[in-house]
Design goal:
The structure holds two protein chains of two kinds. By secondary structure, chain A is an alpha+beta fold. Chain A contains 17 helices and 23 strands. In chain A, a hairpin with a 3-residue loop joins strand 9 and strand 10. In chain A, helix 3 packs parallel to helix 6, helix 10 runs antiparallel to helix 12 and helix 11 crosses helix 13. Chain B is mainly alpha-helical. Chain B has two domains: 47 residues, no CATH class; 228 residues, MetI-like fold (Orthogonal Bundle), CATH 1.10.3720.10. Helices cover 73% and strands 0% of the residues of chain B. Chain B is built from 14 helices and no strands. The chains are: A alpha+beta, B mainly alpha. At the A-B interface, strand 12, helix 7, helix 14 and helix 15 of A face helix 3, helix 5, helix 7 and helix 13 of B.
Chain lengths: 619, 322
């Protein structure tokens, strides 16, 4: 076998050399040195070069063009990464950089929206769903050349489940609480250097995803620190780059506080392109830390950076100049971030014995038809036009239409802007309009307050439009923007709000199992009435059942059936009135190959190992 | 003189104690804490949040937490930043030099322009030069700093004469000679220093002009003129020496503002400074960083005032510090 691989490498090298020579001869006559379709091998010289042989079990990237080696990609980043420790990272810049430095056992393809193998080439699930056997690729190495084995996985799993280390991934593995009051975790069993097995105590459809969310860290580097209880203080921004041993496409070259993060090719990376050329193509990536968005935009337009996340307000201007400029703007359609308006349906009382919500108002909010009337009265098209600069669309389901597997956009009930329908719903419930003001059946004036976080001007603008819309029904809705932390404590602890406008981001993968906290009546983020001991309403009980059904089977069609019924109930009840979803757009130099942004993080460089410059980049 | 300085220093510890407790109490009273922002993620659990809060010592009452901070601070241990998990002291010293570089440059620019222009305007009161200077100072005082910063960034981007931000060339820095590095930083320094300097220049210039006008109408100036002294001697030796006194106090205050005056400019020009770190820390409720910055800013204020008083005593023989 080794002879074969040596020969193959030799062939690849000769191929590369020929390509170089040919190109050297023709560079003057050819306008564009970009590899043509059907070309067999990547051109250019990687600096720094690769080390050792191509791993035998290398992952072949089939769905990307064959590129060219060389060049450094420059990107803007709004803030410093807080840490290079992939297991502890909990802020966006750190997590984005972690995806470039570290790899996991299983990954999620950001465009196809399906699972894909990563460090592990496959996994097997036993018939009863309680045993998972994972197999690592052959010939994997850390960036320092040491072999990457089952021991590293066991070590990383140990960190994630360590009671003294705060890891957000830990909860994915908890399978209930044992008799001793400690959480029960699946047991890890090493079979050999490449094969390991987990034994579960109860079924978990997304177990491979949980395993896929553990970033593997090198045991030979950090074992001592874990034993000393010092792991949480490792891989900080003060680390010597040489000590940051990685398994992702890049390694850290330098970090300058509040200025830049520079990454360089990992010489032992384990992916190849479809012709068998080793990846990544890029020699390195530089992140410039630019806190101001206008300055970031300017840098992109100046050509100082190569890629940009386009804000809705900047889209038009960039697109207009696109034809003359050296960049392309890609509109991805709806993003994964949704916006909703939610009433407080919590009928409980606070410690002082007073109900969280005035019983008079609670009576309206509890009324399903009242919520439906509000939903019909909101002009979502108007929201898109005025607040999102026309770049977005109305949202009807809990999941954005960007979520191709679970969106359920076709089966849910829709609430187009229709004041007559809204009035009919209200009339049916005994509401009455007198002198342009709406009164309930008991003669109370309908008036409530909507809050949102004051840092987000888009959300405040949405509330302004909604306030106007509701005025047409005779409803007096007040707007109160408060700091984000106040919003959170209102929803989590104080429960003292009438209505709130907020949004959801997305977990990866965007699977119903990840929305347990929101959908289950016992969930913490079940914001309209959180942490119920038992479901307060029949429909909430039914949603709980459906979610458990959904995460109790493996078959997608069956899971989808449960999920769609859940979404139908959700849209019929309108506990969260879904509003709009903004479009996502990204821009990059025309010179950048394999530019295929995704709505899921890291949007611009989830395929960093395949990005390349079509013609050599100046400086 | 020395007893005066000693007395001023003795007053510092109680002041720092009061300032630090007030800051801590305000941070404590603010809703939520550093970890609250994690709640936006639908998959975050209560156990994870509780563990983080225990680990970072956010679970005690105000007095317990403040006492804990105080004991460490007295030993010059300002703790670890919540955000970066590195010692606050390292974090701050790295940024401090960058901010000082920027603010000292703008300070030199501001005073270097304000004194001569102010004097000239005062001497040529009512004439064209005075009007030009007046226009410049009104412009400097009225233009919002953010807008001016963005304008300058636009200027840099269109003319390409200056870099659009940052403190150095990130690409070639490592291969530059020390001299080239010096020139590079200076090149990056020009625009942000102008933005900060303009406002300061404007206000000091107004002050200088007013003092000058007032002094020139004083009796001793008339006497000096009557004695037949040369015009330049009257203006620059007698009048200027007297007119500059109040500005020395101002200079002391501007020393105190060295650390905090450049926040907006640091953001727009992506300058890796301390003000940006502090304000980010306030918004993120990164308590250890906020506390350390406040202590440092207070110390600077006290020192700045002391320097101003000493300078005043030095230039004005009528003032005696007891």
């Amino acid at each position: 076998m080794s002879k074969w691989s040596a020969m193959l490498t030799g062939v690849a090298l000769i191929g590369a050399a020929t390509a170089l020579v040919t190109c050297g001869g023709c560079s003057g006559s050819k306008k564009d040195g970009a590899p043509k379709a059907g070309k067999t091998t990547a051109i250019g010289t990687p600096t720094p070069g690769f080390a050792g042989e191509t791993p035998k079990g290398a992952y072949k990237v089939e769905d990307m063009d064959v590129g060219r080696y060389g060049g450094r990609l420059v990107l803007g980043m709004p803030g410093n990464p807080k840490s290079f420790n992939p297991i502890l990272a909990n802020d966006v810049p750190s997590m984005d950089i972690a995806t470039l430095l570290f790899a996991t056992c299983y990954d999620y393809h950001r465009l196809k929206q399906e699972d894909e193998p990563s460090l592990c080439e496959k996994y097997e699930r036993s018939e009863d769903g309680l045993t998972y056997t994972f197999t690592l690729r052959e010939g994997l190495r850390w960036s320092d050349g040491k072999p990457l084995t089952t021991d590293d996985f066991e070590f990383s799993y140990g960190i994630v489940t360590n009671p003294d280390i705060a890891s957000s991934v830990k909860d994915l593995f908890k399978q209930g609480v044992g008799a001793d009051g400690k959480p029960i975790f699946p047991t890890f069993e090493k079979i050999d250097d490449r094969v390991f097995r987990f034994k579960l105590t109860s079924k978990d459809v997304l177990f491979h995803v949980s395993v896929g969310s553990i970033y593997v860290v090198p045991k030979h580097k950090w074992e001592a620190s874990v034993k000393a209880g010092e792991y949480a203080k490792q891989m900080t921004i003060q680390i010597d780059p040489k000590d940051l041993v990685t398994s992702g496409p890049f390694v850290l070259k330098s970090f300058r506080d509040a200025e830049s993060v520079v990454l360089e090719r990992n010489p032992h990376y384990w992916k190849v392109d479809r012709d068998g050329n080793r990846l990544p193509y890029l020699d390195g990536i530089m992140f410039l830390i630019v806190p101001d968005f206008n300055a970031t935009l300017l840098r992109f337009r100046e050509g100082k950076t190569d890629m940009l996340t386009v804000r809705p307000e900047d889209y038009e201007a960039l697109k207009r100049r696109e034809a003359k400029a050296d960049y392309v703007v890609k509109d991805l359609g709806p993003s994964f971030s949704t916006n909703y308006l939610m009433f407080n349906l919590d009928q409980r009382s606070g410690k002082d014995g007073k109900p969280f919500v005035d019983p008079m108002k609670q009576k309206w909010f509890q009324n399903k038809n009242f919520r439906k009337a509000i939903s019909h009265a909101i002009d979502r098209e108007g929201l898109v036009r005025t607040v999102l600069n026309g770049r977005g669309q109305p949202l009807w389901s809990f999941y954005s239409p960007a979520n191709t597997k679970w969106s359920a956009a076709d089966v849910v009930e829709k609430y187009p802007y229709d004041l007559d329908k809204a009035r009919a719903y209200l009339k049916g419930e005994g509401f009455e309009t007198r002198d342009g003001t709406l009164y309930d059946a008991d003669g109370n004036k309908v008036e409530f307050t909507m809050i949102t976080n004051s840092e987000n001007s888009t959300r405040i603008a949405m509330l302004n439009v909604i306030q106007d819309d509701l005025k047409k029904l005779g409803i007096q809705a007040h707007i109160r923007p408060v700091p984000f932390n106040d919003v959170v404590s209102s929803i989590r602890d104080l429960r003292n709000f009438d209505a709130v406008l907020l949004g959801w981001g997305t977990a990866i993968p965007p699977d119903p199992a990840q929305s347990k906290n929101v959908m289950l009546s016992s969930g913490r983020s079940h914001g309209w009435h959180p942490q119920q001991e038992k479901p307060a309403t029949e429909w909430e009980a039914r949603m709980d059942e459906l979610l458990f059904e959904n995460i109790g089977v493996y078959d997608y069609a069956e899971r989808k059936k449960y999920s769609e019924e859940m979404m139908r109930i959700f849209s019929d009840q309108q506990p969260q009135i879904q509003l709009v979803v903004a479009n996502a757009a990204f821009a990059a130099r025309k010179n950048l190959g394999n530019f295929k942004p995704s709505g899921l993080r890291p949007e611009l460089f989830w395929n960093a190992e395949s990005l390349y410059f079509k013609t050599p980049k100046q400086r | 003189m020395w007893t005066y300085i000693a007395r001023r220093f003795l007053a510092v510890p109680p002041l720092l104690l009061a300032v630090s407790f007030l800051t801590y109490a305000l941070l404590y009273a603010a809703p939520g804490d550093y970890f609250t922002r994690l709640e936006e993620d639908p998959s975050v659990t209560a156990e994870y949040m509780a563990q983080l809060r225990t680990q970072y010592g956010l679970d005690g009452g105000l007095f317990t937490r403040y006492w804990h901070w105080l004991v460490n601070a007295v030993h010059f241990d300002f703790g670890h930043s919540f955000r970066f998990d590195v010692p606050v002291f390292d974090l701050i010293t790295e940024r401090l030099s960058n901010t000082l570089l920027l603010s000292v440059a703008s300070l030199v620019l501001a005073w270097g322009l304000a004194l001569p222009l102010g004097v000239l305007a005062g001497v040529h009161q009512g004439r064209l030069l005075d009007k030009v200077v007046g226009f410049i100072s009104f412009f400097g005082l009225s233009i919002p700093r953010v807008f001016f910063s963005l304008l300058m960034v636009m200027f840099a981007a269109t003319t390409k004469w200056f870099p659009v931000g940052g403190m150095r060339d990130q690409i070639y820095w490592d291969v530059m000679t020390p001299w080239e590095q010096f020139v590079d930083v200076a090149h990056h320094l020009v625009l942000p220093a102008i933005v900060i300097g303009t406002t300061q220049t404007a206000s000091y210039m107004r002050q200088m002009r007013a003092e000058m006008v007032e002094t020139l109408s004083k009796d001793f100036v008339r006497t000096a003129k009557a004695k037949g002294l040369a015009h330049w001697q009257v203006v620059y030796k007698h009048a200027f020496g007297n007119a500059v006194n109040p500005l020395i106090t101002l200079f002391g205050y501007s020393l105190a503002a060295l650390l905090a005056g450049s926040f907006l400019v640091e953001i727009v020009f992506a300058w890796p400074g301390l003000a940006r770190l502090t304000v980010d820390a306030v918004f993120a409720q990164d308590e250890p960083v906020v506390m350390a910055s406040v202590i440092m800013a207070t110390t600077m204020l006290v020192l700045g005032n002391l320097v101003a008083d000493l300078l005043l005593a030095f230039v004005d023989p009528r003032i005696r510090l007891e």
